[in-house]
Amino acid sequence: MSADGYIDDASPERLRLSSAADWDRVDAVRAGCDAILVGAGTIRADDPRLLIRSARRRELRAGRGQPPDLTKVTLTWSGDLDPGARFFTTGESPKLVYAPSATAARLTSTLDGVAEVIDAGDPFALEAMLGDLTGRGVRRLMVEGGGGLHTLFLTSGVVDELQLVVAPFFIGDPSAPRFVRSGVFPQSPDRPMRLAEVTRIGDLALLRYLVGGSRG
């Protein structure tokens, strides 16, 4: 995020907040996870592939008996997803889409052949989604955003660790998306997170927090 807490600006083009060195670090973090989660809005806006880029890291995963790529996960309330998005068309690992009951029923035919659609209750229940992922063998889930997902997971108290990279500039536009939205966060002044690591990545700063009071 920027120094004032934004993850993008308000222009049509995606703002580059990171660096090549930090993207390599992110790739290493991905390689240590079982699944990666982004919101439907991120798929629509950024069309990410969410693959592990390093051939060596892919080989190491295969050597450990893991698939070269992570299981891809998204959740959607509206069901507005394009089956031609790179989320669905790249990588050999499963693609899972969680949605409220009514949306899941409509979305199943739209994504037939490219993803498995899972009914996560009516209303949508985060615990149902996490329980289903656990049953599929997902032990470490990487949540990459956007801001709505960050807010949902942090306010629900299900986060173990937060890796926050701060860019050395400001956005200053209240219409731009922020790292989190409004909410009631258990990570409060009375229950602060614990700073486990500070790392310099060029002019970026990585802050790694352990989130006290999370349920794992």
UniProtKB/TrEMBL annotation:
<comment type="pathway">
    <text>Cofactor biosynthesis; riboflavin biosynthesis.</text>
</comment>
<protein>
    <submittedName>
        <fullName>Deaminase</fullName>
    </submittedName>
</protein>
<keyword id="KW-0560">Oxidoreductase</keyword>
<keyword id="KW-0521">NADP</keyword>
<dbReference type="GO" id="GO:0008703">
    <property type="term" value="F:5-amino-6-(5-phosphoribosylamino)uracil reductase activity"/>
</dbReference>
<dbReference type="InterPro" id="IPR024072">
    <property type="entry name" value="DHFR-like_dom_sf"/>
</dbReference>
<dbReference type="InterPro" id="IPR050765">
    <property type="entry name" value="Riboflavin_Biosynth_HTPR"/>
</dbReference>
<dbReference type="InterPro" id="IPR002734">
    <property type="entry name" value="RibDG_C"/>
</dbReference>
<dbReference type="Pfam" id="PF01872">
    <property type="entry name" value="RibD_C"/>
</dbReference>
<feature type="domain" description="Bacterial bifunctional deaminase-reductase C-terminal">
    <location>
        <begin position="1"/>
        <end position="203"/>
    </location>
</feature>
<dbReference type="GO" id="GO:0009231">
    <property type="term" value="P:riboflavin biosynthetic process"/>
</dbReference>
